[in-house]
Amino acid sequence: MRAKLENLEVEEVWDRAGQTRHGYVETGEAADEMMQRVLDPYLKDIERYQNLGMPPEAKYLCMGLMQGLYEFQYASKSGFKDWATDLPVAYAETVLEKWCAGKPKPSALKEIRNFIEENLLHWESLLKRSLLKPE
């Protein structure tokens, strides 16, 4: 995930932003659309794994995506990151909510909670709240 996000070019944000025939596109909106395009196939994979009865694969993909988003937020030197300041944590929450929608077992929820506590320190309170959200 981190590598795919680091491949996003800040110049593409600039190209997408501005006046269009459909109205004005803000740079933040353009960055959001670009990140969504990268993340969407993975969100579909989480759902697919869950539908196929492959909960460990869905869980590990969820963990990997959140870790990649976290590393992008805190370790990346990408110029694109400057236009997507709050997006990584928002998308980590989206990933977690998608995984939780598959109704994981309590043991898997505990494993994800421990993963968040150990690896995603700056996002811990927000993501743990997402684990508690009712369907």
> Which spans have pLDDT < 50 for at least 5 consecutive residues?
none
Subunit arrangement of the protein: single chain
> How many domains in all?
1
Order of helices and strands: HHEEHHHHH
Our estimate of the beta-strand percent is: under 5%
Sum up the overall morphology in one term: globular
Helical content band: over 70%
What is the terminal-to-terminal distance?
A: 26 Å
Average pLDDT reading: 89
Q: Kindly name the structural category.
A: mainly alpha
What's the total number of strands? Answer: 2
Q: What is the number of helical segments per DSSP (H or I, 4+ residues)?
A: 7
Structure summary:
The chain is mainly α and 135 residues long.
List keywords for this structure.
single chain; 135 residues; two-stranded antiparallel sheet; globular
Structural write-up:
By secondary structure, the protein is mainly alpha-helical. It has one domain (2-132). It is 70% helix and 4% strand. The protein has seven helices and two strands; from the N terminus they run ααββααααα. It has helices spanning 2-6, 10-16, 27-51, 55-75, 87-100, 106-119, 124-132, and strands at residues 18-20, 23-25. A two-stranded antiparallel ribbon has the order 1-2. A hairpin with a 2-residue loop joins strand 1 (18-20) and strand 2. Helix 3 (27-51) packs antiparallel against helix 4, helix 4 packs antiparallel against helix 5 (87-100) and helix 4 (55-75) packs parallel to helix 6 (106-119). The mean pLDDT is 89.
